[in-house]
Structures are given as C-alpha cells and as structure tokens.
Amino acid sequence: MFARLQKDRRRLLGLALLIYILPFILHNPYYLTVLNLSALNILTVCGLTLLIGYAGQISLGHAGFWALGAYGSALLSLHTGWSPWITTLLALLGTIGLAALMGVTILRLRGNYLVMATLAFNLAVYFFLVEAEDLTGGPPGLPGIPPYKLGPLVLASDLAAYFLIWTVLLLILFLTFNLVHSSEGRALKALAASETAAACLGINPHWYKVLAFVLSAAYASLAGSFYAHYLSFISPKTFDIFFSVELVAMSLFGGRGSIWGAVLGAGTLTPLPHLLSFFDEYRDLIYGALLMGVLIFFPQGLMGLLERVLRSKSSGLKS
Amino acid sequence: MNEATLLWQFLFSGLAAGAIYALVALGFCIVENSLRIVNFAQGDFLTLGGFLMSTFLLAWGLPWPLAALLAVIGVGICGWLLERLALRAAKDRGPLTLIFITIGASIFIRGVIKLVWGKNPRIFPPMVTGEPLRLGGASLAPETLFILVASLVCVVALQLFYRFSRPGKALRAIAYNFRSAYLVGLPVGFLTSFSFFLAGAIGAVAGLLIVPITGVSFDTGVILGLKGYASAVLGGYGSFPGAILGGLLLGLLEALVAGFISSGFRDVFTFLLLFLVLAVKPSGILGSSEEERA
Q1: Would residue B23 count as lying in a domain?
Q2: Which of A110, A148, A271, B85 is within CB 3.0–4.6 Å of A155 for a Cys-Cys bond?
Q3: Do residue B214 and residue B227 come from a single domain?
C-alpha cells in the first residue's frame, strides 16, 4: 500500500512540474482560461470519484454544490465586503453542513431513487437561482464579483489565477491520495466492491457513504467559489443539470475508481467542446457518440486503456 | 372568474399536463421492467416524435392518422436500435455505464435533431378542433380533452397488452425474474429490444399530443423527460399504476402551485417536494415498502 502511495506521489510531482512549466511555453491567454476551467473540473471530478468509484454511489446533483459555492461566496463578498478568502471558507462550511444533512437523509436511497433525489436537488437550486432575481440577479447573471487578493497582489489575470487554482488543485490531489491510501480510503473502496461484505468486516456503510458525499460536495463547492472569483461573473446557466451530467461523464470517461482517471477524464473532456467549436453544428453529435463509444468499448475509461497499453508494452519488452 | 371556476380551470390544465407526464413515466417503467435501468433518452423520444410528425404532416401532407402512426413506429424503431446497437454491446457493464450510454444517446439524438430540423421550434395544428366545452364555469378545449382520452386509450391498451397477449406476458415474466425467464427459453434479447420499441412508441405518442399546444424544439424533451422521470419515482419506480398516479399528481400539483402561489417558483416547489417525498418515503407512493430497491 505504501509503495502505491509513493508511486502516486511521484506521478503528482511530475504533473506539478509540467503544470508550472506550461505557462512559460503557452502564451495564449485563451489556453490558460481553458486550463483553469479544466483544473476546476478536475477538482470536482476528483470528489465525484470518491463518491462514485470509491463509495459506489451516484449523484447527478453536483452542479448544485458548485452553485452553492459560487453564489454563496460571491453574494457574501458582494454584500459584506469581506475578503473572498473568508467568504470561500464560509460557503464551504455552509455546503458541508447542507451536504451532511442531505447525505444522512438521502443516502439511504439506492439506484434510481438516489439519482432522482440528487437531480431534484440540482433542479431546485437551479430554478431558485433563475427565479429569485432580487437576490441572485436571475438569468442575466451576477457581475462584478471581487477577485482574490494576496497582500497587495490582486489575482485577477488568467496567469495569476492559473497559479492559484492549480496550486490549490495539486495540494488537494496530494491530500486525496493520502486519503485513498489510508485505512479510510480502503474502507471506501471495500464499500464499492460489496456493501454487504464491507458491513460484515465492521465498516459502517452509511457513515462512509455520508463521508464520501460530504467530501465530494466540499470539493465541488470549493471549485464553484474559485470559479466565481476568477471569472468575476456567474449565471445560473452554468449550474444546470447538464453540468452535473458532464461531471459524471468525465469521471466515467477517465475511468471511475481512479483519481488519475478523474484527472485524465476532466483534463480531456473540458477542452473538447472548445476544440469542437470549430464545427459547432456537429458538436452534440460527436460528444454523444464519443461518450457512448468509450462506455461501450472501453469500460475502464481512458485510465484503463492507458494501463493496458503500458502493460502490454512492458510485457512485450520482457519477452 | 371566481375561485371555484379558477380551481376547475387549473384542474383541467393540470390533468392534461399530468396525462403527458404519465405517458412519459410509463416509458421509463417499461424499460425499468426489462433492462432495469433509467433510460434518459426517453424525453428525446418525445421530441423526435413531434418533429417526425411535423415533417409527415406539413412537409409530406399525409393525413394525420397515417402521419401519427408513422411517427410512432419511427420513434419505436429508434428505441429498438438504441437497445440493439448500443446497450446490448455493453450489457455486462453495470447499470451506471448503461445509464450513461442512454445519456450519450440523448445528447446524440439532440445533435441529430439540430442537424436535420434546425434549432427553430415547430408546431402543427391540433388533431381535433371545435368549440370549447363549458364545465362548471370553466372551459375545456377539445385538444385538452383529446389528450385525456388518447392517454386513457394508451394506458388501457398497454394494460391489456401486458395482461393478455403472449409477448406482454413474456415481458412480465422478464420483469419478475430475468434469469428464470431466460432459463425457460423466452427470447430475452428480442423482448428487451421490443420493450425499447414500446418505450419509444409511447414517448412519441406523448410528443404528438403535447406539440399542438406547446410546440417542439430540440430541447423540449429534456424537461418533460425529467418531469416524467420524477412522476415515475413519485409513484414508485417501475409500477405502471404508480406511474399514472405520479404523473397526474405532479401535473395537478404544478397547476395548483402555479395558479395559486407563484408560476415562477412552480419548478422549485415541484422538485423540493419530490426531494422531500424521497427523504420521507424512499420507495414512492405505490412502490414496495422495502427501503433499498436496486
């Protein structure tokens, strides 16, 4: 187990090196924007991987937690004038509280019922954001959200946000790897394999499910807050159920049950619509077909594909 | 208009919307009873039915019964193809993968619709026209009445099919126990495909009924599909009577909330209520009482 943690840490170091070198090669701010959005999605999908791949539960409502993080922190900082760091933390705590409450009640549900409950949560949040115009600005959105400040430094440019967001992401990835290689992480993994067997071994399924749910909601809330203070503008459209669906699709695309799969899935699927914007007409067609194709032909996602290729190469070298 | 008349008016519009939700919910239940997954393309079957009908009726100039029949069969075949080509290939992969294949299919169908019919909404004239009926001071438009009657006919036909025909009985056997059905020699593959044909056809019927009132654009099916899904869950997922009850309840509730409280917050109320129902009674109104349904 410890060897695997070492391996993940080495890979993480490699990723960090790549991340900190990249802005010196890429000079187009548009690429930086896409990379920043990718980082936020990776953060959320990481949390979803804990929930889906480790605890074996489905949620189609995580865009709702994004919205809570984004609107919560944005509105607080706009109305009170507090520093975005503090409001991010407050929104995070609020989301954790709500997610814990939700988790305790709805994680008793299974399969379809859990999917519907999380969808219903997302839809209720979405329609509330649209309708409560006096508070949230309604469909046109909420402009003028203050950026993060570090002493005299205002982190408003794409480059500054790049370093901020990716540093936070790398830190959280580090912590997540610690978690999944700890006994708690193994308990979660056991839950996904067989809930009954896990319960027989003395793992309390409900408690661990709630833990994974709250963690994944916290990741999403954090991503939402960073999104709001980075782009300085948010609108309800960003947080509809399609975004929730996309997030889970990223997790499956990359390979569920693997944190690196989350990095790979969100890292490739986030830029894809931007690439496909050249042929906008066919965008849905290609996206839909690609999603079906990967799920049918590569059930373990990109990560499974990558591991198969690596293994066949190393076994080829031995023989 | 006084309160009582208003109430009647809301009840009628609520029942009509509820009948549509019930038809969509039945589509979800048909699939639940064969493959045991949520088919998120169900709402897009409805959209597809509406667009096919508009082409047959307006561009080709077919009489409406023929156009309707062709549209229903056409969407049914799309459902069949979805099962045969995409889901069958991944049938051992677990429900989450299958559900996301249907989500991929849903995005794909919307892409096809955008490509073939464009992004502009379409509408076609109602199949029956005439003077509105006066009932209890409220007026009941003939197309609303048509929705109620046609949905009732569909529900009864579906019940009769499942109760008395051989393929219907076989489908019930599959719903009861897939493995045993396979062991006694039922053609489970064919029957699963056939259930998707039925789901597509009933989705198309819902589309034919609602389009003359609201029109149809490429994303019409998304929210209607969700409402139908919500109805099915509310009634107890997989139960046919539950789907009908859930659909009508949801339609009535929405109409009353929109009429007497706030039309804007209608959807917030709807989904909050659904959330609460699930938190209190997880298996839905007519669902089996065991908490942990697969």
Answers
A1: no
A2: A148
A3: no
Question: From the candidates B29, B31, B97, B103, which should be mutated to test the interface with A, based on the most A CB atoms within 10 A?
Answer: B103
CA distance B78 to chain A (A): 15
| Residue B149, domain extent | 28-218
Residue of chain B whose Cα is closest to the Cα of A301? B97
Distance from CA of B139 to the nearest CA of A (A): 30
Taking CA atoms, what residue in B is nearest to A117? B275
Dump pLDDT digits (tens) for A167-177: 999 999 999 99
Tell me: do B43 and B146 sit in the same domain. yes
Nearest by CB to B293, from A113, A117, A124: name it. A113
Residues B250 and B136 in one domain: no
User: B116 with B229, same domain?
Assistant: no
Same domain, B210 and B227: no
- Residue range B20-29: average pLDDT? 95
Residues 4-43, chain B, touching A (beta carbon < 8 A): 32, 38
Q: What is the per-residue pLDDT across B251-286, written as a single tens digit (0 to 9) for each?
A: 998 888 888 887 777 788 778 877 787 777 777 777
Q: Provide the number of CB pairs (under 8 Å) joining chain A to chain B.
A: 129
Residue written as tokens 């954790």? A96
What residues of chain B lie within 8 A of the CB of A299, using their CB? Answer: 90, 93, 97
**B268 to A245: CB separation less than 8 angstroms, yes or no:** no
Q: Are residues B67 and B195 in the same domain?
A: yes
Within a domain: B21? no
Residue B118 has pLDDT above 80, yes or no: yes
pLDDT tens-digit map of A119-149: 889 988 998 999 888 888 888 889 989 999 8
More confident residue, B125 or A281: B125
Count of domains for chain B: 2
Residue B249 in any domain: the answer is yes
DSSP letter string over chain B?
Answer: --HHHHHHHHHHHHHHHHHHHHHHHHHHHHHHTTT-S--TTHHHHHHHHHHHHHIIIIIS---HHHHHHHHHHHHHHHHHHIIIIIIGGGTTS-HHHHHHHHHHHHHHHHHHHHHHH-SS-B----SS--PPEEETTEEE-HHHHHHHHHHHHHHHHHHHHHHHSHHHHHHHHHHH-HHHHHHTT--HHHHHHHHHHHHHHHHHHHHHHHHHHH-B-TTHHHHHHHHHHHHHHHH-TT-HHHHHHHHHHHHHHHHHIIIII-STTHHHHHHHHHHHHHHHSTT-SSS-S-S---
With CA atoms as reference, the chain B residue closest to A115 would be B38
Cβ <8 Å between B114 and A131: no
Same domain, B151 and B139: yes
The verdict on a CB contact (< 8 Å) between A289 and B108 is yes
Cβ–Cβ gap A292/B101 under 8 Å: yes
Low-confidence ranges of chain A (pLDDT < 50): 318-319
Same domain, B229 and B213: no
Query: Within a 13 Å sphere around the CA of B283, how many CA atoms are in the beta-carbon half?
Result: 10
